[in-house]
Amino acid sequence: MAKRSILGLFTEQQVDDAANAMDALAAAGYGTNEYEVITGTPYPEGTFGEAEPKHKLFRWPLTGAVCGFIIGLVLTAGTQLAYPMVTGGKPILSIPPMAIIMYEGTMLGAIIFAVIGIILESRLPRLFMGAYDKRITEGYIGVTVTTEEDKLEPAEKLLTDAGAGEIKRGWENN
Amino acid sequence: MASHVDVKSHQGHGEGQYVPFTTQEEVVSDLITKHTKVSDKWISGVVAAGLLLLLGVVGFAMRLANGMDDRVVWGYYALMFAFILSTASAAPMIAIAPRIANAHWRRPISRAAELWSAAGLFSLLLFIPMLWILPPLNDGRRSLWFFDPDDPVYSQVPIYTPHIWAALAILGLVIVGFVLLWLSAMPDLALMREHSTGFRQKFAAKLSGNWVGTTGQWNMLHHRMGIIGAFYFMMLIFVHFLVTMDFLIVLVPGWIDALFPITHAANALQAGVATVILSMIFMRQFGGYKEYITLEQFWGLSKLLFALSLLWFWFWFSSFNVFWYGKKPSEQAVLELLMVGPYLISFLAGFVLSFLAPLFVMVWNPVRKSIWGPTIMSVAVLFGVFFDKLRYYVAAYSVPGIGDAHVHKHFMDMDAIPKVHMPGLPDIFIILGVIGGAVFFYLIFARLIPPVSIWEQKELMLYKVHKAYHRTEVFVLGKPR
Amino acid sequence: MQEHVQLTQKEINDDLLAPVLGMPKWWYGAVGFLLLVIFIGLAAYGYELYWGMGVTGLNRPVMWGFYITNFVFWIGISHAGIMISAILRLTQAEWRRPITRAAEVMTLFSLVAALSNIMFHVGRPWRLFWVYPYDFSRGLFMNVRSPFVWDPSAVMTYLIGSSLFVYVALLPDLAVVRDRATGKYAPTVYGILCLGFRGTPRQWKLQGIAGILLSALVLPVFVSVHSIVSWDFAVAIGVEGWHSTIFAPYFIIGAIHSGVSAVAMIMALVVWLYKADRYIRPDHFDAIGRLLIVVSTTWFFFFFLEWVFALYTLESPEIAMRELQVFQNPFWWLFVIFLLTSYFIPVPMWLFKSVRRSPMWMFITTILVNIGMWLERFLIIIPGLARRQPFEFDWGSYTPSLVEILIVCETFAFVSLGMLLFAKVFPLIPIFDMKEGMILRDEIRIGRRTVPASIRETP
Questions:
Q1: Which chain C residues are within 8 Å of B410, Cβ to Cβ?
Q2: Are the beta carbons of A49 and B325 separated by less than 8 Å?
Q3: pLDDT-derived band of residue B9, with 50, 70 and 90 as boundaries?
Q4: Range with the lowest mean pLDDT among C134-138, C194-198, C264-268?
Q5: Which A residues 30-69 touch B at CB under 8 Å?
Q6: Inter-chain contact C150–A97, Cβ cutoff 8 Å?
Q7: ipTM of the complex
Q8: Residue B138 confidence (pLDDT)
Q9: Most buried residue, A100, B103, B184, B440, by CB count within 10 Å?
Q10: pLDDT bucket at B2, cuts 50 / 70 / 90
């Protein structure tokens, strides 16, 4: 069965209702990867009772730093060994200048990879918005459910019972 | 969305919440009991520190027996004077800076940091012999004071320059440190006035003056602590500037390093943080303050220690790069003396312990956010500071011709660089004695003034409130100013 | 923050998107004027390219003049972004919220302006790529041991790092613009730019981490960039007044001084031009004013140290150069103006709360600071070069030509235009940051007093 998604919209004042909706979905047996809250602004973690998102972001800047370090080393040592020319009476492989450029390479690698990691760990880029409403960025709180078609209607009912003002269907407006 | 939280609705318990009770009365009674009880551990500490101090006095006497003309043998003494200036005198900054930044996590440890001003008294005592060790200006060395024996104007610079200015600066620093300690302790001394007996009660009554806790008194207290804190910071930088200039840089011919006073001060801040972290672990393990000094404090200070370790490298490299690149013979000789020549091992030890180890160990958040991670790194940093200062002070004091007007003072030859000066038995005694002495002074003062600031804990209970926030728990931090 | 205006998310969207979705009345005029200045500056550069460097005032011994002064100045201004953004993020200072993006964007354009000054300064700019290991047929690679090769590595790292930082922090706001934009292409373009950001807890958590992680990564780069630029001067032994170890931290603290002042200027302009007085309150000006007092006093101490050690050397060429700087025409009055404008006028004024809280006075004083800091770089570079050799017949002087003046003006216009264009396309005040600030805002009632507070997550 194909997966579809729906969105239950709650107003800015209905934070607890949205949290109740999340609880009801959990109690009804929906998996944590099947429902999610979306907000236009960051709330303190756990406000809606959601589990702490797990990520392995630290791998990215670490990998990037190592790559950058190696590139810096190859660049500085390689270029000077390729066409060696003594300048300023300093050795061909002078550690202080090499350290400077290798340091910049390390940091650049760490930053670039960190940004890539942040984007990918955020599960972006996302090609299709799915169930979404523009009012989310105006303060509305959305609870989305992405599941098989036969489980959608009970989910709709749970959202409405919890107080959702409107239900939007992802496949209808994308 | 604003919500009103009544102050009575908070809970104050759990790891990391750093106020283990729910009412101010409980906090006061707990902290006063901890403070007034004289524990065996404190007695052992004082005895051990006192014995080390005595050993130091013996070592000093052994050195003094041979007079002060031979500066080479006084290098380790100068090293330890600078070590105390870098560790104990910089520690109060840990109370001052986070207070200005309104960081609440400093509250349980600010008094422990300020108490190190007491060891400032010890540094003043240590400074007195330095006045005789340092030769007068007419030996031809460069100086800050534009002394020129042939010039009708500049030879009028008093012959006790620079000694008197450095002495006044250090005296000023110690006095400001004590004023800061006294101001910060005043409300607690008023508490002790009401809750203790005997000598402690008399002492507290005298020093707390007419403190009763009116709004005007509290406002004045905050205002004054801010000003004195800023003043202490400026005095600290000034003292480091004068001491490094007059007692270190000028002794090495050809060493012109505009950055070094700042490097010395920044290294002192790093050492001060390490000193406070060690004080924290002792207070937790032996002082019974486990519920007050929690992970939060170690995490806050470990971030500072990490940042300052990175700064260590930056300041060192800024100086090094300019000297290395320029290849001026005078500067090459300075690098040879202080870094890659006879004191290479000392330099490497300092480099590894003050920078490399903290960098690679504390870059990991789980290490920073632990109790023992920052503690072990603080020990490493303090050893690093010791070895780093060793290569500067012992090397500088062993340069030939200090005090001798016939030896050229503006330029040092590569072959004039002395060999490494190893410590003798009196020097070992002095090293141990100075550390013991600083700890001794600290422990004595910690008996008179509560080492955890009681009034700041009570203030925290007003401004830090836990509450439920929909499905989670948050805490609310008030910012009254 | 003691004063606070609690706004709904919709109000915040409306206010902060007005410059993007609408068109302020003054916009065309301002952009037109700036484009004119840029055009004239570029025309002057074209003239310089055609006729050669002789059209400038540069000559032996003063080989570095306005362009290098301007280069260092803009590198300095670029340091504001990270100072305000990274350091205030790491210390969780709430007052950073409205100003982080403006500071970061100023960084980006300042860096490009700085790099352009190098292009203006070198006689054969088509050879600038030689700093990179390209073109194997020449039999020569760049000299890694030269500070002029360290410079591009540092500045490019900082530029790329800051751009990525701005972009990552912009993602949630791009989502807001996507939702509010009208027209045929705008929603799609913004949708592509925001990569489909929706606002899930995972995305918000990573935004929070991104702010802290990238701040912590860019901060060491920020320290290294201006240190490396300062070593362009400090490692040289030939020029008096340059070979000083203090240059790296001195330039950094000078950069922070001029950069934070520039941010205060931008804040005042944003309040006046974009009517953002509900977001940038007098409290924000007060906070930045207090930061400036600390920063400028620290800078002054470093300046004092540099001077003390210059005199301490007792070397006659060094002392002669200092005498030139302080007593001789034309440098003496530049020196006086520099001291007054960079420290002795602004700082005593900032000691007064009424001055700190007034956008107009902060604008005036910070303009003075930047005039002073531009002169500071001029006074470091030109007098030293003018007296570079020990023999009098080698001494020279420097008079900037019209070409140099026009090009320097062009750089100021370029940065201003860049910021205006950015503010037209993207929200200059971070929307989600302001919304987060509203949500985290709380109050504690103690007796009759209500103390403003912030919500923090339990660790």
A1: 314
A2: no
A3: very low
A4: C134-138
A5: 43-49
A6: yes
A7: 0.93
A8: 73
A9: B184
A10: very low
What pLDDT was estimated at residue B401? 81
Any domain includes B160 = yes
Cross-chain Cβ contact A49/B471 below 8 Å: yes
Which domain range does residue B399 map to? Answer: 11-477
Q: Shortest Cα distance from A174 to chain B (angstroms)?
A: 32
pTM, rounded to two decimals: 0.93
The minimum CA-CA distance between B475 and chain C, rounded to whole Å, is 5
CB-CB under 8 Å, B4 with C453: no
CB nearest C444 (choices: B5, B257, B310): B5
Could you tell me how many CB contacts below 8 A there are between chain A and chain B?
Answer: 31
Please give the mean pLDDT across all residues of chain C: 92
- A173 at interface of C, judged by CB pairs closer than 8 A: no
Among B69-73, B107-111, B224-228, the minimum mean pLDDT is found in B69-73
Q: Is C201 on the interface with A (CB under 8 A)?
A: yes
Q: Confirm or reject contact between A127 and chain C (CB < 8 A).
A: yes
Q: What is the 3-state secondary structure (H, E, C) of chain C?
A: CCCCCCCCHHHHHHHHHHHHHCCCCCHHHHHHHHHHHHHHHHHHHHHHHHHCHHHCCCCCCCCCCHHHHHHHHHHHHHHHHHHHHHHHHHCCCHHHCCCHHHHHHHHHHHHHHHHHHHHHHCCCHHHHHHHCCCCHHHCCCCCCCCHHHHHHHHHHHHHHHHHHHHHHHHHHHHHHHHHHCCCCCHHHHHHHHCCCCCCCHHHHHHHHHHHHHHHHHHHHHHHHHHHHHHHHHHCCCCCCCCCCCCHHHHHHHHHHHHHHHHHHHHHHHHHHHHCCCCCCCHHHHHHHHHHHHHHHHHHHHHHHHHHHHHHHCCCHHHHHHHHHHHHCCCHHHHHHHHHHHHHHCHHHHHCCHHHHCCHHHHHHHHHHHHHHHHHHHHHHHHHHHHCCCCCHHHCCCCCCCHHHHHHHHHHHHHHHHHHHHHHHHCCCCCHHHHHHHHHHEEEEEECCEEEEEEEEECC
Q: Which of C235, C451, C457 sits opposite B322 (nearest CB)?
A: C235
pLDDT band at C240 (very low <50, low <70, confident <90, very high): confident
Tracing tokens 């027209």 back to the chain, one arrives at C183
Q: How far is A46 from chain B (nearest CA, A)?
A: 5
Whether B469 sits inside 8 A of C248 (CB atoms) is: no
Touching subunits for chain B (3+ Cβ pairs under 8 A): A, C
Gap from B119 CA to chain C (nearest CA, Å)? 27
**Domains, chain A, with CATH or none:** 3-53+129-173 (3.30.70.120), 59-121 (no CATH)
Q: Say yes or no: domain C9-454 is CATH 3.30.70.120.
A: no
Q: Are B324 and A49 an interchain contact pair (Cβ–Cβ within 8 Å)?
A: no
User: Do the domain assignments include residue B5?
Assistant: no
Show residues of chain B in contact with C302, CB under 8 Å. Answer: 262
Residues 286-315 of C with CB under 8 A from A: none
Q: How many domains does chain B have?
A: 1
Size of interface B-C (CB pairs under 8 A): 133
Residue-level length of chain C: 459
